[in-house]
Amino acid sequence: MKKSPYIGHSCIPPCMRTWHGHPARGSWAGRPCHAAFCRSLAVLFLLAGAALLHAADPAPAETAADLITAAQRLARDRNSDPAAVSNAFVKALSAADATAENRARVLLDLGQFYLGRNQAAAGHHFLEEAASAAGAPAGLRVQALRARADARFRDNFKGAFASYFTKGIDDAAELHRRIIALPDVSNGDKIAAYRDLANCLLEKMDIAGANDALKKAAALPGLTDEERRTAIGNQANALYRQQEYGQALPLYESLWRADLDNRPRQEIEGRIIAITRRLKGEDAAIALMRDKFPADPMRLANACRDYGRTGEALKLYDAILADEAAREKPNTRWQADVLRTVINMMGDKSWPEFRKVVEPRLAKYPDLDADMTRHMHNHPFVRSAVAGNADFIKWRGERQARHDAAAAALPGARPAVPDGKQMESLIRARDAAAALAQCKELLSNTNTPPALRMSATLNRIVIETRDRAAEAVRQVNAALNADALLKTGRVQRAEALLASARSAMSLEFFATARALHAERDKMLVPSDRPSLACPFVARAPKTVAEFRDSAHFRNDKNRARVDRKYGDNLQFLLETDANITGRQVTDGDGSLKSTEFTALCDDEGVAIFLFAPTDKARAIEAGFEGIGGYEIYLAAGPEDPYDCFLIDMPPDGGTTIFNTQYNNAGYRQLDPHKGNVSVTHRFYDDGIATLIRVSWKAYFNRLPSDGTVWDFEVCHWDKGGRTWGGSKSVHHRSSFGALVFANLTPANRLAIQRRLLPAAARVYRNALSSRNGYMEIWQDPELGDQEFFHAVIEPLQTRLSSYLPRVRADMSDADVAEVFDNAAIEWMNIDYIVARLRRDYLDARRTGGR
Amino acid sequence: MRRFCIRALVLAGLTTAAQAANPVFEAQAAAARRLQPVNRERVTADLKSAGLPASPAVWYAVPAMSDTMRLAWSYPEDGRLNADLNIVAAQDEFEPASFQLYSFADKRNVTLTPTLFKGEGGATMPAAALDIKVVKLWFQNGNGWLSYFADVGLKLIPELLLHDENMIRVDMEGVANYARLKDASGERHVWISAPRELHEATSFRPVADPFEDAKTLQPVTLKGGEFKQFFATLHVPAGQKPGIYKGAITVAEGGKRLFDIPVAIRVLPFTLPNARPYFDLDREMILSFMGGLSLSRIADLHNCDHATALRKYDEYLANLRNHGITHPSGVDQTEESLNIIRRHGFTTKPLIEAKSFAPWYGLNFGGRMSFDQMMTARDGARQCAEFYQRVLGHTDLLCGYGDEQGTAFVATHRNFYKYYHDYGIRIGCAGHEALLYKGGYTYGYYPMGGEPDAHERIRPWNEIGDRYVGFYASQHTGPENPQFFRRQHGLLGYFSNLSLVYNYEFDLLNWNDLATHTYKPMVVAMYNCGGIVDTLQWEGFREGVDDMRYATQLKLLARDAVASGDTGRKLTANKALQYLALLNRTEMDLEVVRAEMIEHILKLLALQ
Fold it and tell me: Which of A42, A71, A339, A677 has the fewest CB atoms within 10 Å, i.e. is most exposed?
């Protein structure tokens, strides 16, 4: 056995030591043995300054500050090569005038750079070096430690099972404690560190610890007024987050001053309002906004809107608009924002309500009308309730048309390019007349793009032909043929036909919709229903090996190929090579041989033998490789329940069967545990063979004759999914192929019946058994009903039991036919027959007065 | 004439194309052509063998619940020629009967009118107690009746229960369903079985458009040589005197009586209790679906004022209540709506689909909840408890959080569920084993994605204890087979120790079976301008629920008998329990199980 050259060392080959000034070119992740390497690398980095100076000689004129700035710029560029960034920092480090602070700055930047590039180990390493660099200023050390802490903190939220551990949070807390303990750290930094430490403690649900930390920050000696406010703000915020609103409120109130800058003031007000709403309700919050914090009328209006006080909100919005309009130079952008807010608020009201509110306001601010009209045709407004209203669509369309005309009339104005949305909306709203007018307008507009022009043409045809389907199809085809792309581009033509059909559908021209849809369907490659004979074969092969070697399977005519692509992608439905039985399916890089199958029946049942060719068969058998399984559907006729086989390949796969009905007199579930179906596999050098055997026991009352068709489909989830019938999705009943029974001569049918008789007799004998037999039980004086037994069951039992002795290994063909016809089906269904008799008996007895 | 010929040719071409796309219906049409003459001979022979005179029309009493698709050309193998309709029902129970009419020649304007039902000692039951509807055959996708998967082809199946069979026009030539829209301006028909890519462009609005059923049975047309199924649902009035009642359904053509179908009703001497889990008689099962309509949704759909919406919602809820739903889903979590469902007699303790007030954190692939998220969840729990305590007076609530989530999601979120535990509120999620592996100890209810008899997936939850366990998805709603629906939502799950019936989903609005991709529209009943339109599977659901209510009645009586100390009663009770215990749950004939349960109940009552 060849010994690994790395045994006793790192499990990963050491990275190339070719020095490009880039200490972390490869990923640092997954290098368990490299902690020491990191340390030594950094030491090397600092101690070998002279060598590095030679490796990257700075130009004499470049100062350390310049070089740092240049490196920082490079680091900010997400596309820059890490090696180049690294080299730039190294260059700065080796500048002649580099101070201790410069060196620490370089290490800090380098650390942050690596963190940003998801190279955490390198990042933390350099940050730690920066934090402990000799001569580094306290602020820089704090920055380095905080960067580390933030990164570790964030790490604790990554990964699917990040809730399992708190190591990142613990590390972050420790780093914040280090910041607090650093000498010469400013109070501001300490307050921030206490805040961050508290945050870590909160994440660990240590609320008391968090509050204690924040309290310490507020009690730091020598705080300025601003610092004290910050510390108190931190306490208030923490209490707010803890939902200790009663405690947070007085702190916020103590922080509020009218002369604060807008942003901090609004933040404090926001918290006070939110707490007031929670503690005292909406009215109190609104009163507060109105009376104590009146500087933000939009906030008040939005709050009224959010609390469902639409009328109040409207008045406030109107007042805001009026105030703005009264200014010498109104801010139209601001007005537009307010008006848009009003329109959005009304979007989920009824059309009359919407119109009543919006129309007069648009009239009042005509300069904003065009902008608002556009807004009402775009996301997210189009998702509002009113946007689907036919009257709204028409109203908006008319406004849009007016604005477009006005814009076009402006001297030198570039005419608007129509987008056709109004036409589509009118069609969806079933307004044929207005839609037709829109089509004509689009067609007369010289700025209408060609694609939209074609769409308008086709819609015009659909509307003008007024559900005369043949005429519509003729004109649509003519229009498509007049267009070079649509004449030959199959996908585009199919899509254009479908779009026309959809327009017809919306407008309720159903004959036209169907005809245009059918015209499109004609373009798809016809997928004829595949068919395979399922002949009765005397002395048929029984095992996988016998099948593989059988003359039946070797005969090409008996084999079907699973070679139609699964799915309903339009492109391949239009492509002939994917759908015709080309017998050779390709999949990108080479030819693939199709999975094949054959079917036959014998006296035991139906056998389906599949062979999936693959040169990986042995590797699959050994479990090193895998192959997609089969999904197979089988139904004993078009109206019969189907059973779905989900067959996963060995060595790990098994077979489950999804049945679509429970057992009853007419149907038996296929179930491996009930012994009426089996699935076996065998591996060969060139592929995997699978044999499915279905017993006639499941079909005793539906034995096929010559020409009987059973529905059948095979999907092989390999090579992107291939099918026999052409399924577009799973359980695609209309794509099932046909298994056509043959050679079911009277003698062969008799052979099947002969084989079934012992099984049927067993079922019947079970009913006669004292072990909860459903016929026997009625004789039981304690658990049965002897009156019922004598009146109903006994005669049936006498008749059916009389056939039992005739079921013998040497029974004649005549006996087989007679017993099968007169008893076997009733034997198989005996429980259901007795149940029905019992039900009728009890019903009659109860409704007859007993 | 020439124009007519061209149109006919075009139509013929379309029909051929339509049929080629509908192989299942093509096979059905061939079967119809083959079987109609055969059926004529079989019915004639049946008359003869029953010693009955030749008749222009006959009826076959058939089981109302059956796996059999009763199509126009399907001879009723399980039918009884010209037999009485026998109905056995408890007080205040809805119980169906069914029959198929067969006419040798076309008959128009055929009416079916129930008579007064007369009992012993002058007791009566009004004719209106028997609601007769036509079982409408219409086109559904090729998997119709059998599974919840989509298909592009159509086939005919029985599904809708209509008073007016013309509410839907079925175009056999074009293979299409049309909805009849009828108002003062007249009638028009809208194509509602278009392929998905066309359906997406439909402007049909089943609720806002004037599309509705009649309030009572309208005259029907019998096509010569075809069977037509009817569904007669008896609602025994509450407090109806027990005993036997006799009456009939008079069948007439153009006002001229053809024959009477005798109806015999046995009213049982008890009212059914709400269903309780097989293994736990001390609490009630939750019987519901995911999905359904709310007051606000109904207002949107009908585009109506609040008063009208309230009336429509009342009608909707009454239908749900009468079909065995105990906990309507999709209810707006407002004081108004919660009071409405209480007024209708639904159970609101526990309340399902309560609003958790917890935000959706979007941590679908796991992670770690932050302190702020935990606090928001805690606040959500508080708000949730306060709201329901105020409105309902309790916090016995089932709140959903997530859907079919994996282990990472559960591990990430499960810690916040404790805030809900503090109030006794249960958080639940539908899905698979991941929920058990990482959250079995904390989830309070669990719709399990699997079959209702997936014992090994149900067992661990019940062993952990004190939670509601249901099934969904195997199968989803959608298959129209009422007996299948009855079994899955009834005794199969009941005997598998489920305590929750909560399949996905109660869609009512998708009238086009080709409208969806991958899955069939998961409808149970339908909804239009007139309200709920009943279906066979919806009746199957009711029967499934009633099966469980009978079983509950039996088990309650047995418990009393066992506790009575009377050996005779105890052994009689144990025989009943032995009967239930030995049932083959997937194969049992549900009709006979019902009949035997009644037999055991009557025996136990007689011993009280």
Answer: A42
Total Cβ atoms within 10 A of residue B84 = 18
C-alpha A76/C-alpha A393 separation (Å) is: 49
pLDDT band at A414 (very low <50, low <70, confident <90, very high): confident
Report yes or no on A381 lying in a domain: yes
Interface of A with B in 451-510 (CB under 8 A): 469-470, 498, 501-503, 505-508, 510
Q: What is the pLDDT of residue A659?
A: 96
Q: From chain A, pick out residues whose CB is under 8 angstroms from the CB of B579.
A: 783
Whether B6 contacts chain A with CB within 8 A: yes
pLDDT at position A394:
87
Q: How close is the nearest chain B Cα to the Cα of A157, in Å?
A: 5
State mean pLDDT over A37-63. 45
Cross-chain Cβ contact B21/A428 below 8 Å: no
- A581 and A469 within one domain: no
Distance CA A497, CA A514 (A): 11
What pLDDT, on a 0 to 100 scale, did the predictor assign at position A51?
36
Are residues B469 and B426 in contact, defined by beta-carbon separation less than 8 angstroms? Answer: no
Q: List strand residue ranges (DSSP E) for B375-512, in order.
A: 397-403, 426-430, 445-450, 468-473, 500-506
Shared domain for A350 and A203, answered yes or no, is no
pLDDT digits (tens, 9 = 90+) for B242-267: 999 999 999 999 999 999 999 999 99
Report helix, strand or coil for B57: strand
Which chain A residue lies closest to B474 (C-alpha atoms)? A658
A639, A663, A664, A736, best to mutate vs chain B, most B CBs in 10 Å: A639
pLDDT at residue A8 is higher than 60: no
pLDDT at A244 over 50: yes
- Cα dist. A571→A529, A565, A594, A794, B52 in Å? 20, 12, 21, 67, 63
pLDDT bucket at A401, cuts 50 / 70 / 90: confident
Answer whether A836 sits within 8 Å of B587, measured CB to CB: no
Residue ranges of domains in chain B = 16-269, 286-531
Q: Distance between CA atoms of A350 and B420, rounded to whole angstroms? A: 38
A266 part of a folded domain: no
DSSP of A608-675: EEEEEE-TTHHHHHTTSS----EEEEEESSTTS-EEEEEEPPTTT--EEEEESS--BTTB----GGGT
H or E, element range at B271: strand B256-271
CA-to-CA distance for A305 and A294, rounded, in angstroms? Answer: 17
Tell me the pTM. Answer: 0.91
> Contact B375/A846, CB-based, under 8 Å?
no
Mark yes or no for CB contact B408/A430 under 8 Å: no
Residue A791 belongs to domain spanning = 749-847
Q: Locate all alpha helices (DSSP H) within B344-431, ordered by sequence.
A: 371-392, 407-413, 417-421
Same domain, A34 and A22: yes
CATH of B16-269, picked from 3.30.70.240, 2.40.160.60, 3.40.30.10, 2.60.40.10, is 2.60.40.10
DSSP string for A791-847: IIIHHHHHHHHTTGGG--TT--HHHHHHHIIIIIHHHHTHHHHHHHHHHHHHHHHHH
Count of Cβ atoms closer than 10 Å to residue A591 Cβ: 8
Asked whether residue A150 falls in the same domain as residue A124, the answer is no
Distance spanning both ends of chain B, measured CA to CA: 80
Of A523, A550, A575, at which residue does a domain stop?
A523
CATH annotation of B286-531? 3.20.20
What local confidence, expressed as pLDDT, does residue A96 receive? 82
Residue A556 sits in the same domain as residue A513? no
Q: Where are the alpha helices (DSSP H) in A706-745?
A: none
The residue that leads in pLDDT, B126 or A90, is B126
pLDDT level of residue A574 (50, 70, 90 thresholds): low
